Amino acid sequence: MAMEPRQPITEQRTLIERRRELQVLEAAFRELRRTADGAPRTRHRGLLAFSGSAGLGKTALITEARDRAAAYGLAVLSGRGGETEQGSAFRVVRQLVQPSLARMDGAELRTFLGTWYDILAAVLGLEARGPAPAPDPTGVREGLDWVMTRLTVKKAPVVLLLDDLHWADAESLSWLASFASRVDDLPLLIVVAYRPEELPAETGELRTLLGGDRPHDLAHLTADGVARIVRNEIGEQAEDQFCKECWSATDGSPFEAVELAIGLAERKLSGTKDDLPTMRELAAAIKGPGLIERLERLDTATIRFAQTAAVLGSPFSPQLAATIAVLGDEAVAEATQALRAARILADGHGPEGELEFLHPLIATTIYRSIRTGFRVGLHNTAAQTVLAAGYGPTAAARHLLEVPCEGSPETVACLREAAREYLRAGATEAAGRLLTRALQEPPLPEDRAALLHELGCATFLIEPTATVRHLRQALEEPDVDPDLRASIVYRLTTALAHTDQLAEAVAVAAEEARQATNPRVKLRLQADQFVWSMVRTDDPDSPARSRTLARLAEQLPGRSLEERYILGLRAWDAAKRGEPRQTALTYAEKALRGGMSWTDENRGFEVPLSVALVFMYGDQPRRAEELFEEGIAECAGKGWHGSHLAFGQTIAGYVRYRRGCLAEAEDLVREGLRIADKMEGVVAAQLFGVSILIQTLLARGRVTEARALADEHHFGDVIPNAVIYPDPRTVYAELLLEEGRHAEAASLLSSVGDWLDKRAWRNPAWCPWQLHLASALARSAPDEAVGHAQDAVKRARDFGAASTIGQALCTLAEVTSGPAALGLYAEAVDHLEQSPAAYELARAQVGHGAALSHDGRLQEAADRLYQGLEGAVHCGAEALAARARAELSAAGMRPLPLRYAQADTLTTQERRTAELTVQGQSVEVIAKELHLTEQGVRQLLASVYRKIGTDAAGLARSLESLPHRHYGH
After folding, report:
1. Coil, helix or strand for 481?
2. What are 468-476's contacts with CB under 8 Å, separation 24+?
3. What is the DSSP letter of 722?
4. Alpha-carbon Rg of the chain, whole angstroms?
5. Whole-structure pTM value
């Protein structure tokens, strides 16, 4: 264990009157070490902040913190913002982690970063092993959280020091704001220093984190403090009036007081009244014009070296500065010695012999003093030099931003490549700045469309209206390559859709498809047209568009990706229209042959997602789950942890909901909604997540919680500008029904039905509005309720999915009076037993059991109610289980002990039944072979369908892909 470090030495000249701040640091270090040693966790916070204007000793305090942390045996990670380098994305993050990563060899580094290696390669300045993905900002932040957490665990306990936080780049600040809120759970202390008046206005989250009583505001030194600094340097004989004049001349700035005292000592002054003129001269030379006058008294080579260093930023490589300033080794050595002696430069903390300015104020003053023309020339030379030295295009681009536009193709190429690196690092704002500057250069005419396309892609997440503007300009360029034009159209239509201009998106895609001469490109543009037509709420002729899509799909074998997208859209359209499910499933399978990516940046994930849902609505949810697992893994592999992952998680939960796995569904949807809630502008993902979570909560019987969720997200006020699934209005009507507000629900559902019928979307599997409307009208208009339920049953039979037919029959039974309901319930159960819809089966069984009980057929009722109760408990449907128990109690029966079989585990008998079914054996034959009744075989098959998530049509494929763990005894 490390020895206790020395006690605070308040007499140190750089830390006079900083006793309180040093005590705070000491206490935090002791607390951190005790925590790491296994003592009870008593930490109050993992972040310390010191704020104050320039020259108040923040850098000295951070330096002292570094020394004291080391004395405690704490690992230190450090970084510093730079005034001239705020546009360099993730610069501060790299300062923090690169020294630790640099100590690892290649194999160790790949092991340490694991699956995050390629995602974070561009962020951390590493070489990607393959085609580098372009992660989204959320994915990058989560990856950096993971890396910093691993480093903390590896080096624990750790102190993370950040000086001049106000000059840190925006991307590092954004990450720090999200990460700092969770450090209390790690053996990590973050210590930051900053000028509050210069903290960027857009860092709202960080400002909140630093607010309240957290920052320790550094005060100016008192007259006594300055006197102590002066007397420490020149002796106790310094007169009181002289010391007071020193305090006045420095305004109590620790930096200026120390520099003045050192200057007084060098001049061998004793601090008398006669020394006051010299003192004032020295004080004036510490900063501003005085500092520049002092610098200009040095030789020309030294001045040029200092100015070059100011352009490069602190810390800097003396060799690089020498190349830019065109100085030899001897001249550099002399300049370095002179600038050290003048207290302008000091040794840096890096491993490569870097130098840095003694104080940021000095660097700022020198940089701003350089004549504009000469400064531009230095930046231009610096850009060429750092590029030639292998520092990369992003290092050069920072300097090119300071150079006037000259129409240089080389400048445009460098800026575009640097922007690509930033996009690979998820730094879209930084990329946008560079591409905007490249456009101003300007580029060669033949490169302009491609550059506008790149700029449109970079601005999409942060300013979609600017994306529309850039991409419209790109389309106006002459002789655009057909594939590039198609990509421009895709991005443009997507941006239009995200800015509530769906009709315009459809019009653009349609016009471009009409003009396209390349058949493959034409198909791609037609796919874009169909995508945005299908999500429009005001599509003027949905049936005509469906007929066009059907005719087009019939002609396509699905060889190319463009063809497969059309086939996927056809499958989705067929499912919503309620065409026979086999038609939809056939097109879905054809669309998947040859692959269909969820992360193609120029195509979107709407079509692959919709294809997966076709299998869910077609009673093959296991197949849908496999596709969602692949899609989510693909998104995670590329570092896409934003809207794509939010949709993926939420819709995966929707599939589990449809299977009746309500607890799992709730967990998945909540995670998807958590991701969506963190992102700005992801309205569709949030709306979808809230819709599914409300449905799941209602199925579980938690109506009050569902209402609270709806109110929190103003769900009842939402009118979607696009068609999403499930329809939010129908979901809200479900909530109204559960609350007993039948008239409101009926009114809302009637308007939904009118709207859907105009579009010829009649499949109750996708939107069961008629079923809910029947329930809403059951008391006030029973005949109308039966009519709607009967029509829904017909539509369900037309589609042909057993789960949809069973659900519709169950609703029809609920609104039908008399003995006829018993037959409808029995038929509903029969269909649902042939489907994977466990919750709907349990609901039908409980409904059937209750009807049988009321009819006096108690033994049959008991069997059904027991089955329904077990199914409800297994699904997590608490209210349905309570109803089953209540019905049993009302009939004078007590529930039997329930069997809690694992959800996805087939017994040996179930497996054999499934295999014989796949071989084409009849129920009678299977019953004889397994020595069971025919009803027993049907029950085994019903269990198989629910457990592995398919119906009879998908059973063979599901059995082949079922892992060994799915078979038990």
Report:
1. coil
2. 468/492, 468/495, 468/496, 468/499, 468/501, 471/495, 474/448, 474/449, 475/449, 475/512
3. B
4. 35
5. 0.81
